[in-house]
Amino acid sequence: MIKMDSVAVMEAKPVPDPPFIDATPLQPPPPPAPLAALALRRSARCLNRPTRPSYAEQEPPKQPSGRGRGKRKKDEETLEPTAAQGAKSPGRKASKVEAGERKPMPVIAAVPVSCAGVAPAAAEDDGMGTGKSAKLRVKETLRAFNSHYLHFVQEEQKRAQAALQEIEAKGGLKRQTKGGKKKGGKQEAEGEEKEKRPSKRPDLKAITKMQETNAVLYPEKRIGQLPGVDVGDQFYSRAEMVVLGIHSHWLNGIDYMGMKYQGKKEYENLTFPLATCIVMSGIYEDDLDKADEIIYTGQGGNDLLGNHRQIGSQQLKRGNLALKNSRDNGNPIRVIRGHVSKNSYTGKVYTYDGLYKVVDDWVQNGVQGHVVFKYKLKRLEGQPSLTTSEVRFTRAEAPTTISELPGLVCDDVSGGQENLPIPATNLVDDPPVPPSGFTYLKSLKITKGIKMPSNIIGCDCEGDCASNKNCSCAQRNGSDLPYVSYKNIGRLVEPKAIVFECGANCSCNHNCVNRTSQQGLQYRLEVFKTASKGWGVRTWDTILPGAPICEYTGVLRRTEDLDGLQNNYCFDIDCLQTMKGLDGREKRAGSEMHLPNLHPDNDSEAPPAPEYCIDASSIGNFARFINHSCQPNLFVQCVLSSHNDVKLAKVMLFAADTILPLQELSYDYGYRLDSVVGPDGEVVKLACHCGAPDCRKRLY
């Protein structure tokens, strides 16, 4: 039985902060063979925080408008001056914008793929006139699912906690163990809670929520390739495949079209039921997988909850009949392989391996002597190569040791400041050179003359705030903590207008889930040189949606001090302007609720330009190397902990999607087109090279 999964995140122990130092380059080794296509192409960095890529909700992407936000970086790209198109932008050269709330997306109508051949991989458009690529719609659907999933995980954690408290209140502590000794109160309560209140499945509840809101990407079953899903695409739960419509059941191995499709004109020559997809995950002992050729065992008679052995004979109905009919009809069938993966929060990873056809079927006695139906499937030609095989999951894997890295030019750009070393590689320059021109600092440096607000009164929780329903920090967030916890590590449930974390005056422990952004680096990362976009950052580990990546650090300055200066690593702290919806910004959820409770200065009319910024031009951390993408996998989140002045909020980057090993990290800088004006008054244009299917072609 394939079981869905709870939230899991890597644990990392905080380390003392050593003095910041420059990264010390190593002697470059002889250049080896280049790594093939490991990085996404990226654009130049800008000063503005991105148009928010919310993985919580869905809405067609808006054309960048209003003020851009965040940071700037030019890298090695060419600026293209043109004649000014309108009046000059007032004040700073670039303006800032924040994307707003996403609305539920419309359902895509089912358009069956012809059985005659293989559909092209990942159609450029979804066919609905939305202007979105099919790839983007897949990403948005998974973001919506993950948001619902985390909400239900949080709901389940609250339910379990309430149950424990109820059991303790009823005298559960008085029970005796078999040896006559008292059990610990929490241990006994947890045992009784498990016995009396079976856990709910947040993944199944998330599926139901997606179905109720018409948010399933392909709600009608389709034959053949699905637009936006390519060979080699990975999924980290059966539920993800259900909400996309790739495989519509969270447990059954055979997905098929039932008799309701028989009367439709496009299927008039086909016999139903008709198989559309199978999942191979090692449940049936009679299966045989030779990659391009599969011997697949039909469904039924299997001890799904036990040792997965056959305990009864199968019958020719439902999925078994559908596979037999598919042989007669000759329609292609999607094949998905499931493999154990330590990098997956579910313990498994599922890979789409393309289209196969049933070429033979027969009945035989299985290993246990029971009647089983067998089907021989062969992979269709002309598809991309397989990334999975019979026994193991294979894909480009991250290095295991830093010393083995091709093109290594620095063993740790942080100089030991981070929890984990961050190596730098360069396979582009000859001779290869390390990142230079800055001093690494993992914390924010305050400019002389800027006074930070006094620390506010903290919560009085003991241990973790997640166990205290009356936590004052939870109340600051609207009643619930913004994170869900697993092994003392948190994931942000959804992007918010502002996140209130526990601070210096809180009595909870340092591993409290509401200190998630304070735990430091938790993933193995690498700074690497790209062919056309300067330096970038990629991960060696799987990073889950909502996981914290890092704070954007540098020197905290007043924005007016940088006016008129060329600075490509400046990040405006415009949380207040966004919360008030100024200058074209769109508000995030919680803006109206939080504004009255923030620092009194915030209640006055805020200026259109942010008052403070973070300058990482000479001092900063690895965030200064993270590149722009029009379809990013990170989003920006403002965080407050020790004070309430949102104008001085901490700027954090969180994962918006499941980010696989060796994928480049990116976020949207959010520049408005034609917002940058040169000294001569002419509009400056910069091409975008992120390579995303929905790339806007220009950064500004």
UniProtKB/TrEMBL annotation:
Endpoints of the signal sequence: none
Domain Post-SET: 684-700
Pfam families: Pre-SET (PF05033), SAD_SRA (PF02182), SET (PF00856)
SET domain span: 523-670
Annotated segments matching region Disordered: 1-101, 168-206
Keyword annotations: Chromatin regulator, Chromosome, Methyltransferase, Nucleus, S-adenosyl-L-methionine, Transferase
Domain YDG: 224-379
GO cellular component: chromosome; nucleus
Subcellular location(s) per record: Chromosome; Nucleus
InterPro entries recorded: H3-K9-MeTrfase_plant (IPR025794), H3K9_HMTase_SUVAR3-9 (IPR051357), Post-SET_dom (IPR003616), Pre-SET_dom (IPR007728), PUA-like_sf (IPR015947), SET_dom (IPR001214), SET_dom_sf (IPR046341), SRA-YDG_sf (IPR036987)
GO biological process: methylation
Basic residues: compositionally biased ranges: 172-184
Domain of life from the UniProt record: Eukaryota
Residue ranges of domain Pre-SET in the record: 457-520
Skewed-composition ranges (Basic and acidic residues): 185-206
GO molecular function: double-stranded DNA binding; histone methyltransferase activity; zinc ion binding
Name the record gives this protein: Histone-lysine N-methyltransferase, H3 lysine-9 specific SUVH4
Phylogenetic lineage: Eukaryota, Viridiplantae, Streptophyta, Embryophyta, Tracheophyta
